[in-house]
Amino acid sequence: MSGETTDPRDPKNGAAGKSGTQEKAETEAGGADKGALEELEALAAENAELRDRLLRTMAEMENLRRRTEREKSDTAKYAVSNFARDVLTVGDNLHRVIEHVPAEAAANDPALKSFLEGVELTQRELLNMLERHGVKRIDPVGQRFDPNNHQAMYEVPNPDVPEGTVVDVMQAGYTIGDRCLRPALVAVAKGGAKAAAPGKDAQKPANDDQPGEASSGGQQS
């Protein structure tokens, strides 16, 4: 009948109403969980980005620290380069004085001999002072020409040494630390024999006689 009323105490009607409320609550809860998940993912991405920036900054600071220490060390080591290069000119002049005094004249003249000894003492002290500050003299005679430390002035035909060997020094060279302060002015051998390969001589027999000749010599006796 149309006039009938719905009894709220009817279990069917109560179950239907409860089902609708739960569905709405579950929908709202699902939306809240989804929002929280998205927020958590955004925070995780931001945290990863900040961590990456922190690691990059720490790496840059470490590189800066190492570069600063290296520059500080180089400054302390090579600060005297310009001064030492100028002092080498004084050493060259002392060397020229020693070379231009004939040994016979110094032996016959006590005053000249005493003067020459004083110049030699001054030159040795100058070289010792430079060495205490990391400046060392290059002695390339007999060594292979090295363009990093030597400057070739001319070539000398010399078949007795391998080609490219330094045979004479016109002006001494010097290094400071692991750098070339002034290259040595040298003369280089030209047209010499090539250097023997290592171990080549070891393969040769110690006795040049052939085995057949040695045995024939034993039969003759």
Q: Could you walk me through the main structural features you see in this protein, from its secondary elements to its overall organization?
A:
The chain has 221 residues and is of the alpha+beta class. The protein has a domain at 136-193: Roll (Nucleotide Exchange Factor Grpe, Chain A, domain 2), CATH 2.30.22. It is 57% helix and 15% strand. It contains five helices and six strands. The chain has helices at residues 11-78, 81-100, 103-108, 110-132, 211-220; strands at residues 135-138, 150-157, 166-171, 173-176, 179-182, 184-190. It has a three-stranded antiparallel sheet with strand order 1-4-5. It has a three-stranded mixed sheet with strand order 2-6-3, with no helix packed on it. It starts with 10 loop residues before the first helix and ends with a helix. The relative contact order is 0.07.
Largest sheet: 3 strands, antiparallel
The number of distinct β-strands equals 6
The neighbouring-strand order within the major sheet is 1-4-5
Using the coordinates shown, work out and report the CATH topology of one domain: Nucleotide Exchange Factor Grpe, Chain A, domain 2
Instruction: Compute the CA-based radius of gyration.
Output: 46 Å
Could you say which overall geometry the principal axes of the C-alpha atoms support?
Answer: elongated
Which architecture name of one domain does CATH use? Roll
Q: Identify the CATH homologous superfamily of one domain.
A: Head domain of nucleotide exchange factor GrpE
Helix content: 55-70%
N-to-C order of helices and strands? HHHHEEEEEEH
The low-confidence parts are: 200-221
On the 0-100 scale, what is the average pLDDT?
A: 79
Secondary structure class reads alpha+beta
SS summary, helix count = 5
Strand content: 5-15%
Q: Output the CATH class name of one domain.
A: Mainly Beta
N-to-C span: 153 Å
